[in-house]
Specification:
With 410 residues, the protein is an alpha+beta fold. Helices cover 18% and strands 30% of the residues. The structure holds adenosine monophosphate and magnesium ion. Magnesium ion (MG) binds next to loops.
């Protein structure tokens, strides 16, 4: 049986960054850019006013004269029809283009009306005041975003501002979520005798959102070989398939056989970990130009599914999305109390911060409490957790204050 590290190395070995493709801006959120993007025009494209007020020529404003005639009104979206006349001010709105000859804008609040004229009260009017000059933000052709940049909401706004509605990126991976098990009913239903609700699907769906994958949840598949085989084949067009349940050693654990019948090559089955030992991993058939689907058979217990996702699926999604970084994203933490651990497998136990790593004034790792829980079906215990403490294989006492590995949930 592989250790977690060995199994993860197998997963990483099989995962490849997805080929670049063109996507809409919103679909590119969080993705790596796969092209350089330059400005299509000067920004701003004209000298513009930063405030509502009066466009003036400062040479008209002397200590002797603060009074100007009011000329045309320039609204945002309009263009001036003429240059400023002598001792004339144009009424101008925020974002509107400056008329020729104007070299400053006086804020409305610093002026007052006298008969038909405007009087400038501002003691000092400097050249360029309240004006954003053409090209001040960027010049036409200037490189704005480089290939490899990760697209934040701000970068998407920038792309829109230079006229892009689609962009080349390493696309978001697509993820199929297939819950299996005759005992499952959907969350809205009241379970009958022997039944339980399907809680894994929505949990995985939410995790997929966090990891910028597009997911589709399939209806619950029964523990029936023919049906499983049929549905699995439908799922093999996705980049990643997460099957939950049916990978243990029970009589109705039919998932590995259904996967292999669908041409999914097993890479490993079972990992030396707790929970999640029966985890199954394989590669689907090549999809045209695309590599085969990465298929994870996650044991059905909620903790097994969750830990399996965090430890194996999340790093795989990261590789598919072209991103590097620590995989999985572990932290160090200090134990609040002594803890006796028994077990021959790496063990993941829900834990929560009693003192988070930052914001407390003390630098260094935070302090965690290992939570009491009823085992891998216990979502109540898990929902209180901030993550999982990782206790290595072998019986031993972890001391209070000892530094341990911690896999955060977020
Ligand atoms: P299995 O991996 O099929 O042996 O299932 C292990 C345990 O997880 C069983 O108690 C199942 O009822 C439970 N389980 C399986 N699938 C789900 C699911 N989608 N949501 C919640 N519990 C599940
Ligand atoms: Mg089952």
């Amino acid at each position: 049986m592989l250790t977690v590290e060995e199994a993860l190395a197998e997963v990483i070995k099989e995962a490849r960054p997805l080929p670049p493709a063109e996507r809409s801006l919103l679909d590119s959120r969080g993705c790596l850019l796969a092209e350089n993007v330059a400005a299509d025009a000067d920004q701003p494209p004209f000298d513009k006013s930063l405030v509502d007020g009066y466009a003036v020529r400062i040479s008209d404003l002397t200590s002797a004269n603060r009074r100007l005639k009011i000329g045309e009104t320039i609204l945002a979206g309009q263009t001036p029809t003429r240059r400023l006349g002598p001792y004339e001010a144009a009424v101008i709105m925020t974002g509107a283009p400056l008329p020729p000859e104007a070299d400053a804008v006086v804020m409305h609040e610093h002026t007052r009306f006298v008969h038909e004229d405007v009087v400038v009260d501002a003691p000092e009017v400097r050249a360029g005041q309240n004006i954003l000059r053409r090209g001040r933000i960027c010049r036409q052709g200037e490189l704005l975003l480089q290939s490899g940049n990760r697209l934040s909401p701000t970068s998407l706004g920038l792309l829109a501002s230079v006229g892009r509605t689609r962009v080349r990126v390493i696309p978001r991976p697509t993820l199929a979520i297939l819950p299996t098990g005759d005992e499952l009913v959907e969350p809205a239903q009241v379970p009958g005798p022997g039944q339980i609700r399907n809680s894994n699907a929505v949990m995985l769906e939410a995790l997929a959102v966090d990891h910028i994958a597009f997911s589709r949840v399939f209806p619950i598949a029964p523990d029936e070989p023919g049906e499983l085989h049929r549905i699995v084949q439908e799922c093999l067009v996705f980049d990643v398939l997460l099957v939950t349940g049916g990978v243990s050693a029970g009589q109705r654990d039919l998932v590995p056989a259904a996967l292999e019948r669908s041409g999914v090559r097993q890479v490993f089955h079972k990992v030396r970990m707790k929970p999640g030992k029966p985890l199954w991993f394989g590669i689907g058939p090549q999809r045209g130009e695309q590599p085969g689907t990465l298929v994870f058979g996650l044991p059905g217990n909620p903790a097994s599914t969750l830990v399996g996702f965090l430890v194996f699926v999340a790093p795989a999604l990261q590789v598919l999305a072209g991103r590097s970084g620590p995989v999985p994203a572990e932290l160090s933490a200090r134990l609040d109390f002594e803890f006796l651990h028994r077990g021959d497998r790496a063990t993941y136990r829900p834990a929560r911060w009693v003192e988070p790593p930052s914001g407390t004034g003390t630098s260094g790792p935070g302090v965690i409490e290992i939570l009491d829980w009823a085992g891998s079906a216990d979502l109540v215990g898990m929902a209180r957790a901030d993550g999982f403490v990782i206790l290595g294989a072998g019986d031993r006492v972890f001391q209070a204050g000892e530094i341990v590995r911690f896999l955060p949930l977020r």
